[in-house]
Amino acid sequence: MTLHLPTVLFFAGLLTVAMTVGIGLLAYRERRDYLWHWTAALASTFVGMVLFAVRGSAPDLLTVVLANMLLLGNLLFTLSGYQRLFRHSKAPRGMGALVFVQLIAFLWLTYGLDHYPSRVHAFNSTLAALSLASAHLLWQQRHRLGWTVLALPVIAHLLHAGIGVTRIVMTLTDAGGVTSLHAASQAHVVAIMLNSFAAIALAFGFLALHAGDLLEELNEQASTDALTGLLNRRGFDPALQLEWERHRRLSQPLALLLIDIDHFKRINDLHGHAAGDAALRHLGQVLRQHLRPYDLSARIGGEEFCVVQSGVHPEEARQTAERLRKADLCFGLDAQGEAMRMTISIGLATARPEDTEPAQLLARADTALYLAKAEGRNRVMPG
Prior knowledge:
By secondary structure, the protein is of the alpha+beta class. The protein contains 13 helices and 7 strands. Helix 3 (60-85) runs antiparallel to helix 4 (95-112) and helix 4 runs antiparallel to helix 5.
C-alpha cells in the first residue's frame, strides 16, 4: 500500500487541531502560561502541516519557508512552556538567534541554492537538537514528577530526535538524490508520518505534565499550613521521618525544638482572633528569618510549632532556640496604638544513640516544653 503524503498530513492535522482546541480551552480555564505556550506549539504544528500538504499549489515562501519555521516553532513553544511549568526564570539561551539563523537558512536553501536535501538536513538537525534539549529538560524533573508523568513527553521528544537523524541519513544515502518532497521515497513519507504522530503524542504528554503539576500543587496545599506557609502536621510527619532516616544513615546529630506561644488564648481574648492570626503568621516569618534554609519547620498544632535541625550539636541547638526566643516578636499594634508582643517557650531535645524512632525525640521535647511552661514560660528547656 502506497502512503499519500497530503492525506497523511490531512488526518494528522485533524487530530492536531482537536488537541489544540482542547488544550486552548484548558488554558483559558486554568489561566496558566505554560498551557498557552503549548497551545501555540500545537497551533503552529497544525498550520505547518496544512502548508506542507498544499506544497506545489501555493508559493514556496508559505509551503517551504513558513511551513518549516512553524514546525520548528512547535518545539520552541514547547520548550518555553517547559520553562514556565518548571518555574525557570530564563528562556533557553540562543533561542532568538536560532530562529533568525533558521529563517535565513530556509530562505537561502529555497530561493538561493534551491537544494531539497540541504533543507532536510537543516530542518531535521534543528528538530533533533531541540527535541533532545526538551527531553533533557524533562529528565531533570524526574525526581520531582516521576516517570508516570514524564514517560510520554520524553518518548515523544526522543522519537522526534530519532526520526530527524534518520531522515538526514536517508537523504544522504538516497540513490540519485531526492529533489523535492513529492519525489521522496515511501521511507521518507513514513518518517514524516511518524513525526506528525509524535507531535500528537506530545500533545497528550502536555496533558500528563499538566495533571502532574496540578497533583503536585494539591499535595503541597494539603501539606502546608495556609496561615503561616510552613508545613502542617500532615506534611511534617513524613518530613521528620526522612530527617530521622538520614540521621541514622549518616550518624549526624539531630535536634528538635518544640515551640509554643505563651498565653495564646489571652491574645485572642484581649485583641481578637485577627491578632491571634497575626501572631501565628509573625512567628512563621521569624522561623524563616532565623533558621537555615534547609532546616525543617512546621506548625503542628494551634499555637505549637516545631523545628528540626540536622548536623547540630546540643549547644548549637540551644543557641538557635535562644535566638528565636529573643527575636523581635512584636506582631502588630493594638487599638490604642501600643505594640503587641508575644513570648514563646521552647522545649529542646537531641537524638540519643538508644533512640529507635523520631517519636521518642518528639516526646522528650514535649516534656521539656511542659517544664518550660511550668517554670514560668518565656524560656528554653532542654530535655
